[in-house]
Design brief:
about 180 residues, mainly beta, SH3 type barrels, OB fold (Dihydrolipoamide Acetyltransferase, E2P), 5-stranded antiparallel β-sheet, 1 helix
Length: about 180
């Protein structure tokens, strides 16, 4: 969620409700300021009021990488949004052209990129399995089109399309 904290719009990255021993309960939250991009830990007492800020989610398509930045396009209006690598985070390992992502906006500014739980990627480099390497569930390192290296079964060849779990970075199946 997004809140108005000290006159600034902040996105809540993490929150925990704590009740230490004989003290009053409080909420420990990690907030990211959307204007500066800096994160901070904040304690809220149980009596404090917060002002939630509405968040909008949109389906966007990854278009291309412009230097360090990533450019996304709205498939309905064809408007483009440029995002910094810090905001994209680990999702960059699974972004392919025309791949669909969910973007969260607060006051017309993108604050996060959510990728689907699994994506289909093309194998760019898969070394041949060595004869006799047929013990149970043997894996080999392969390189995907986005540049990441994952472990996959010996039968995967260069040029094949495979499905990868974006949460764990592991091979799921052939696509």
């Amino acid at each position: 969620m997004a809140i108005n904290y000290n006159g600034e719009i902040c996105v809540v990255l993490d929150s925990q409700h704590r009740t230490p021993g004989n003290l009053r309960a409080f909420v420990q939250a990690t907030l990211r300021n959307i204007r500066t991009g800096k994160s901070s830990d904040v304690r809220f007492s149980s009596t404090e009021r917060i002002d939630p800020v509405p968040m909008i989610t949109k389906k966007m398509e990854f278009s291309y990488k412009d230097g360090e930045d990533y450019v996304f396009t709205d498939p309905e209006t064809f408007e483009t949004v440029t995002i910094t690598p810090e905001l994209v985070g680990d999702a960059k390992n699974y972004l392919v052209e025309n791949g669909t992502v969910t973007m969260v906006f607060v006051e017309e500014k993108a604050v996060s990129v959510e990728i689907p739980p699994s994506v289909v990627l093309t194998v760019t480099d898969a070394p041949e399995g060595i004869r006799g390497d047929s013990a149970n569930n043997v894996q080999k390192p392969i390189v995907l089109e986005t540049g990441i290296t994952i472990q996959a079964p010996l039968f995967i060849k260069t040029g094949e399309k495979i499905r990868v779990d974006t949460r764990t970075g592991k091979y799921i199946e052939r696509a």
